[in-house]
Amino acid sequence: MNSVERNKKYNQYVESKKPNTKNFPTLIYAYLVGGFICMIGQGIQDLLMKIFPAMTLEVASAWMLIILIFIASFLTGIGLYDRIGEFAGGGSIVPITGFSNSITSSAMEFKKEGIIFGLCVKMFSVAGPVIVNGLAISVVVGLIYLFL
Amino acid sequence: MLLMYLKVFLVGGLICFLGQLLIIKTNLTSARILVLFVCIGAVVEAFGLYEPIVNFAGAGATVPITGFGRSLAKGAIEAVKEKGILGVLTGGITATSGGITAAVIFAYIFALIFSSKTKKY
Which of A30, A40, A98, A136 is close enough to A90 for a disulfide, judged by CB 3.0 to 4.6 Å? Predict the structure, then answer.
C-alpha cells in the first residue's frame, strides 16, 4: 500500500470515528440542551433567593454559576457530561458548564503525565485562551472607559 | 413565573444554537467558540446592550459563556469608575474571580479523584 492510499484510508477511519456533531439535528439538540441548562440555572437562582431572602440578585447569580460549575465538574468526573456533549455539541459547550467541563476533562486526561506537569499545566489547554483573551478584552474596555 | 422560565429557555437556547451553528458552518474548535463568545459578550456589555438582555432573560443570559464576558467588561467599567487607572487591571478578574477559582479548584479535586475512562468512540 502506498502512502497516498494509506492516508486516504486513515482519513476515512478518522471520519467514521468522529463524534457526530455535524448534522442538522444537533442544532435542535444544542437549542434544547442549552436552554435546559439555563433553566436549571434560573431554578437554582430562584431557589437560593427563596431560601435566603436577604440575598441580592447579584450574589444569588454568582452562587448559581458556582453551583453549575460544581455540578458540571462532577458530571465530567463520573463521565456523564461528555455523553451529553456527544449529541448536544454547542449546547454543552457554550454554557458556563462547558467552561468547567473543559478544565476538568483536560485535567483528568493529562493526570497520567503527572500532577504538576500533566494535570496542572494541561487543565488550561482550553480555559487558558478563554481567560487570556477575556482579561485582554476587559483591559481594553477599561481603558476605553478611562479615556471617555 | 412560568413565562420567565420560557424566556430563559428561549434566549439561553438561542445563544447555544448560534454556537452550534458556528461549529457546523466553520469547523471552529470549542476553544475558539468559547473565546469568540466571551469577546462578543464583553463588547455587547461595553455598549450597554447586555443588561437589557439580562433583565429580560435572567439566567438565559448569564449562564452562557457570553455572561462571563459581560462580567469581565462590567467589572472593568465599575472598577475604572471607582479606582481610576488601577481599575483597568483589577476590574475584570475581580468580577470573575469566583467563577474562575471555582472551576479550577473543582477541576483539581475531581481530576485527583476520578481518572478519565477510555473513550468508546
Answer: A30
ipTM: 0.91
Which among A137, A143, A146 is the top mutation candidate for probing chain B, defined by the most B β-carbons within 10 Å of its own β-carbon?
A: A137
Contacts of B66 in chain A (CB under 8 A): 94
A-chain CB neighbours of B22 within 8 Å are: 90
Could you read off the pLDDT of B32-87 as tens digits, one per residue? 999 999 999 999 999 999 999 999 999 999 999 999 999 999 999 999 999 999 99
Q: For chain B, give every domain's residue range.
A: 2-113
> DSSP characters for A82-127?
HHHHHHHTHHHHSBHHHHHHHHHHHHHHTGGG-IIIIIIHHTHHHH
Q: What's the pTM?
A: 0.88
> Cell for A103?
478544565
Domain ranges of chain A: 22-147
